[in-house]
Specification:
The complex is a heterodimer of chains A (156) and B (426). By secondary structure, chain A is of the alpha+beta class. Chain A has one domain (34-153). Chain A has 4 helices and 5 strands; from the N terminus they run ααααβββββ. In chain A, the strands form 2 sheets. A 3-stranded antiparallel beta sheet of chain A has the order 1-4-5. In chain A, strand 2 (108-109) and strand 3 (116-117) form a beta hairpin. In chain A, helix 1 (2-51) packs antiparallel against helix 3 and helix 3 packs antiparallel against helix 4. With 426 residues, chain B is an all-beta fold. Chain B contains 1 helix and 25 strands. Chain B has a 5-stranded antiparallel beta sheet, with no helix packed on it. In chain B, strands 7, 8, 9, 11 and 12 form a 5-stranded antiparallel beta sheet that branches. The radius of gyration of chain B is 42 Å and the shape is rod-shaped. Residues 1-38 of chain B have low confidence and may be disordered. The chains are: A alpha+beta (156), B mainly beta (426). Chain A binds chain B through residues 45, 48-53, 55, 57-58, 60-66, 115, 117, 121, 150-156, and chain B through 288-292, 295-300, 303, 305-309, 378-379, 386, 418-425. Strand 5 of chain A pairs antiparallel with strand 25 of chain B.
Chain lengths: 156, 426
């Protein structure tokens, strides 16, 4: 009986270990995708807040009211986004291709998320290509695209 | 021999010559001077100025040697006359002779009386008492004719009880009446006089002069500085021409013109009450024109409420607004606007929360200098609503009133400020 038990254990190890390791690797791959998605979202949040901090000084001098600079605000947001996506493979490319909208005519809707906005806001949507890695083993395409949106507004 | 003069009752006068006054210039223009009696007519003028509201001018012509009434019948002049004896029934002299003078070319009556006067119009002071069949020409002639100009000056003031510092209207009205004398031999008339100018002495050492002209009344305003009784005095200077005419045997007039000048003055006490003077301060509001530090020049009008971005220094430029200028009252009545100028300003605290930076703190600034403020925290939230901060500003105002009084005021005004910041939406 004892000799037969050792044989069974070896069989389990030989047969099940690769499957367990594959499952573990896929779990890690999915977790990495989640982390990348969080980093992308975090970078978008920072970029939108940074863009919403660039006010139209000429308009302000004329009216005493704050609204966003439609020219400088997207530039600032894109630069912040690029800096925060550095190190993420195609991060710079994602920053350059990110869609950024300055919304001064409020109330209005975020063109990407559809959220209703009632103050001047910056809205961003970015697409980040990510290597699918081992997920290809289960039929995923070679590159996955993570898409995230964010908006920030001038609040009282 | 001089006929007796009677009263001024027109009906009682027996007048033989109707108004030739209007025809005198025509006669003079068309006729050459005729020979007169030895010595000719003597014309004397007495102009009596008066300072109690009355003045007189007497003009008299005499010619004791002349005895040439206008001849009856036709004469080679451009005019002719029609004589009409009218019984008036007066006990002393029951007959009146009316004389109508016509232009020979047009048959138009030249001595028609002015409209509205009783008929017959008797403008003479020379009296005759002719009979119904003997015209005055055939009677005795007077060797004297007199004319008189009476001048009456009335001075008034308004309002009745003016107050010091408020305008008082001093007015004057000059009335003149002329009595001319038109006889068959001699005539004396004052037909042309005018006001050369007015002088108004207000009684407080000041005076004004007004030009003369055709207007017989004037009015001018004056402001008395203090309460007292002032003796306002108006002096009118009058000049004119008196014209005497002596009719020669051919009917032509010999004219003598004399100019005269006279002054008439009158007083009016003006009782000026001392007035309570009040200087009312201006109402001034403060607006600001904001500029984010270093981003350009202020271009907005004065704003009573502005946004500021959190954690950024904003320069505020003062834009004062005079809501209502200061003014002065006398006895409760408006007496002129003041002129206010803002000379400086400063930060004087905040309701809610003080800014985290104020540059340059609470020192007084020139009007053109900016005040830098910065909030690092958002608006206060009360009852779920963000509340603006209320910034108090003090303004130094120099006020000059129309009476020369100067005042320096410190006015406090407020500006609402809302702090805005960028935040992401979830």
């Amino acid at each position: 009986m004892r000799g037969g038990g050792r044989g069974q254990s070896l069989l389990y190890v030989v047969v099940l270990m690769p499957a367990l390791l594959l499952i573990l690797a896929l779990s890690v791959e999915i977790a990495l995708l989640q982390v990348t998605g969080l980093r992308l979202r975090s970078a978008l949040d920072l970029a939108s807040v940074g863009g919403a901090s660039v006010v139209d000084t000429t308009y302000y001098s004329q009216t005493g009211s704050l609204r966003l600079d439609t020219h400088r605000s997207p530039l600032a947001a894109r630069e912040i986004l690029a800096r925060n996506l550095t190190g993420l493979g195609a991060g710079r490319r994602a920053a350059l291709s990110a869609e950024i909208t300055v919304l001064n005519d409020v109330p209005g809707r975020d063109p990407y998320s559809g959220a209703l906005l009632d103050r001047p806001a910056v809205c961003i949507r970015a697409h980040l290509p990510v290597d699918a890695g081992l997920l290809r083993l289960i039929g995923a395409p070679a590159w996955l695209t993570l898409t995230r949106t964010a908006d920030a507004e001038l609040r009282a | 021999m001089t006929p007796p003069l009677r009263g001024r009752d027109a009906i009682q006068r027996l007048l033989v010559i109707a108004s030739l006054l209007a025809t005198l210039p025509l006669l003079g223009a068309g006729a050459a001077p005729a020979a007169t009696g030895a010595g000719g007519p003597q014309v004397s003028i007495a102009a009596v100025s008066g300072d109690q509201g009355h003045a007189f001018v007497y003009a008299q012509v005499t010619d004791t040697l002349g005895a040439h009434p206008a001849p009856p019948g036709s004469s080679p002049t451009a005019y002719y006359s029609r004589w009409e004896a009218v019984p008036v029934g007066a006990p002393g002299c029951p007959w009146l002779w009316l004389v109508y003078v016509y232009d020979r070319a047009t048959n138009r009556q030249l001595n028609a009386p002015p409209p509205g006067l009783p008929t017959p119009y008797l403008p003479s002071t020379t009296f005759f008492c002719p009979g119904p069949r003997v015209s005055p020409v055939a009677g005795l002639q007077l060797a004297i004719a007199q004319a008189r100009l009476d001048l009456d000056l009335v001075v008034g003031s308004s309002p009745v009880r003016p107050q010091a510092g408020s305008p008082v209207s001093i007015s004057a009205r000059l009335d003149g009446s002329v009595a001319n004398d038109l006889g068959l031999l001699l005539s004396m008339a004052i037909g042309d006089w005018q006001i050369d100018g007015w002088r108004i002495e207000f009684g407080d050492g000041s005076q004004a002069r007004l030009p003369g002209g055709s207007a017989r009344n004037i009015s001018t305003a004056h402001v008395y500085a203090a309460g007292a009784v002032y003796q306002a005095r108006v002096v009118a200077s009058i000049s004119g021409i008196a014209q005497a005419a002596e009719y020669g045997p051919s009917g032509y007039p010999f004219l003598v013109r004399r100019s005269f000048a006279v002054q008439v003055a009158n007083d009016r006490p003006v009782s000026v009450a001392s007035a309570s003077v009040q200087h009312v301060s201006p109402l001034i509001a403060a607006g600001v024109s904001p500029v984010i530090d270093g981003s350009g020049a202020p271009t907005s009008a004065g704003l009573r409420r502005i946004d500021v971005p959190r954690a950024e220094l904003v320069d505020l430029y003062l834009r004062p607004a005079i809501v209502r200028e200061g003014y002065r009252t006398l006895g409760g009545a408006f007496a002129g606007w003041a002129h206010s100028t803002v000379t400086g300003w400063r930060y004087a605290g905040s309701l809610g929360s003080a800014p985290d930076r104020v540059i340059p703190d609470a020192r007084w600034l020139q009007v053109e200098a900016p005040l830098g403020v910065q909030w690092d925290r958002p608006d206060l939230v009360l009852g779920g609503q963000a509340q603006d901060y209320v910034v108090r500003l003090q303004l130094r105002v120099a006020v000059r009133y129309p009476d020369g009084v100067a005042a320096d005021l410190t006015v406090t005004a407020t500006v609402g400020i809302g702090v805005r910041y960028a935040a992401q939406n979830e």
